Fold these 3 entries.
Entry 1:
Amino acid sequence: MGTLIVGYDGSPCAVAAFAEAVEMAKATGDRLVIGFGYEPPGYGEEMEPYREAVRHRGEEVTAEAIEKAAELGIEAELALVPERPSDALASLAERYDARAIVVGSYGESPLRSAILGSTPHKLLHGAGRPILVVPYREDS
């Protein structure tokens, strides 16, 4: 049994990534680690209330994924990590010696992703693990 890391923030593209990870776990017997990175940009003590609010929100949105995995009989655990999302997922992949990281994408252009630094773009260029980027399509 291996491990798949799934980036999950409750967004439609994260839901698509979770659905794909569930199908992979069913086929392989892998367990899921549902990761949520909650480090906001900026430093200082004034960021602490914001950091805690984001962490709390992470607990709320990931609860639905943990519950769904349990309903489907898939072993899953939650990992809230006080790092930016791409760093959090890469750290989790190393910690769990993950087979792959699964994330969703709204399908930004490569230029936009490079300039804005999307999580999938950052992972593809630095995670050191296979990355499955699941596109979100409104019509699906």
Entry 2:
Amino acid sequence: MAHEKPNFNVVFVGHVDHGKSTTVGRLMYDSGIIPEQDMKKLKEEAVKHGKIGFEFAFVMDKFKEERERGVTISLSYQKIITQKYQVTIIDAPGHKDFVKNMITGASQADAAFLVVAAKEGVQPQTKEHLWLLRTMGVEQIVVLANKMDTVDYKEAAFNKVKEDVSALLKSVGYKLDKVTFIAASGLKGDNVAKKSENMSWYKGPTVMEQLDKFEPPKKPTTLPMRMPIQDVYEITGIGTVPVGKIETGIIKVGQKVKVLPGRSGKGVDGEIKSIEMHHEQLQEAPAGDNVGINIRGVGKKDVARGDVICDAAKPATMAEEFTAQIAVINHPSVIAKGYCPVFHVHTAQVPCQFVELVQKLDPKTGQVAQEHPDFIKNGDVAIVKIKPIGNLVIEKQKENPHMARFAIRDAGATVAAGICIDLVEKKFSGEKAK
């Protein structure tokens, strides 16, 4: 059965051309996942395109077409089976896709490799990626000093990367004693799947060994059950089947549930009739599982992608307005009051309006740098008040971090990412305010 080893999601991030794809491709090849004849074809392809040495990058890039399908996500991501885990590798081709995959995507990274080329060192994007990882709650980070072959495998070059990145990590709030630094060359295969013979001074793990050194993700099964709907299918003989990943809690047959906001916007009540995963019927399923379920009392017209199936006893909140901490990553100009982009929260996409810019924070210290700024721009971290135009299910970070993260997208690009820190709950006429 596929359940023997726990799933573990790892994302490779870093500045463009610092060798992320090449490192991942090398890992696949050296660990025997990519057969020799496939590699030979890719090599010929690389030469043909005048890109000698790009064959490893092509390993990941040949999945691009499949990957462009957006949120049907991890079907085409690379899997590696290690001693301990089934590892899903997300190769982030620059932050736009990365954020989309991290937040809108069904898979959340449990750990990250930050790839920094030894020669070029820290780049503007490096800090951006760290902020993002931090905001998205990725706690386990490994720094990969890549392309060591371009600096003659010198220990001094590795130490320089270590020093510069350590300063960044500290400024973003990571604890250095928890961070591993690896000296490697994706292109030449040093310390990727095999120990390097070119750096006798390096005593740390290879990338492959590091995968098993990560701590298993804690399954948030103690939180109330939340399952954002990814798709809704009609299946003959069963009926309406919403499909999605259980973010938190445990879903059980017979459980009373509330689907929010539902077609009515006021929630739909039902009871779990059946749960299916990999064509097997289950009595229950924990957080982290992707399942299809059938709910008594809930039909095709009642629910849609973006709705959240909740434990009826402890339903999620719908926000009248909410307060968020956001990091602006990639906005063409500035963000001011009145701006109305699309917020991607779990599987939902809802237009929301910025109603107040409360504070601008100093990204290095997290201290308040300015009260009520007129605008915020790239690189800024701010506390803002947001009003959803429509129904939005979101929770406060301290209550359920898995349901508090979001990305802000505009004109096809991710402009910011953030977390909900407070909210005013939406009330329906005839209800008493809590």
Entry 3:
Amino acid sequence: MRARFSLLSLLRAALIVLTAASSAVVLPRLGSVGPDLVLLVVVAGALLGGPAKGALLGLGAGWVVDLMPPGTPALGMAALTYAAAGVAAGLWHRDSGRSASLPALATLAAASTVAAVGILRDMTSGWPVPWAAAGWSIVLTTALGLAVVPLLIRAERGLVRRRMA
């Protein structure tokens, strides 16, 4: 069996690595709470491909986040979390029609999924739950998703239309 990689797959992978690196290096210098940049790439892919592709994209993105320093307390936790977020965003996939609120709702669902898994992890581990940080992360990710996710979707559709993907 021969694997086939499209330009779109390579660009998504590069974008995930770039956003994970900037989330690990740049965002902590700006403040303690910031938007989840990797999640925006997962949401855009899930909206275009549906829940199954969203889960696979989220799983791959989560592995990158798991391996990016400082990493996660349990290896694989981010991969499963982003896979669940990819499914949540992929449930908003529609074959026809373009809604302005669809990317925002899908981003809200995915960001809420990531925050809920983090809260559950903290509660079961006995760690203090950062309720305010989780809320702000959801708000900031959704707000940034309003602008970024439609741009990513438009760029991906343009690549497909030009048969470059």
